[in-house]
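sorry for the late reply, my laptop died twice this morning and i had to redo everyting from scratch. anyway the thing you sent over, i finally got around to it. pasting the sequence first so we're on the same page, its 159 residues, then the predicted structure underneath. double check i copied it right bc i was rushing
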Amino acid sequence: MVAPVSSVSPFDAVVRIFHAQGSLRREIDRELGEAHGISLDDLMILLHLEAASGRMRRSELAEHLRESTLTVTRALGPLERIGLLDRERTSGDPRATYAVLTTAGFQMAIDARATAEEVSRWWFRRGGPAEGWSPDELRQLADLLARLGGEGLPLPEEG
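ok and here's the structure:
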């Protein structure tokens, strides 16, 4: 068990979040890579597209991911090459393109999310560095991260 921190500065808290996120990300990336050949960043793209019924403008996707359009465009290329996404041009603006999930992309979102969920369960409950968290503690952590602007999983669009 980790000893409680007696005092902490806001920057120390940020550093702790950064290091915890890095550790968990490495574990999820390793499992996703071995099982599906994608990363957590790739999965987040797929999940955002899935929530948007499989189709989203690249600029809008970048906004949801809190990344630049260039960063997202670069990340989409490999997913297109392995058949998880297609690119669709709009008729009104030749510069605007949509990222569109393929059937394989929808299936990958389902399968890879299950893998990430399993790693996360292990991380918080069955032997990971954060072993033994109760559902209430997880909810409290999620609430605290939300206060810092941390959003949860993308929800399906209404309509």
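The CA atoms of residues 115 and 145 lie 23 Å apart.
thats about all i looked at so far, will dig more tmrw
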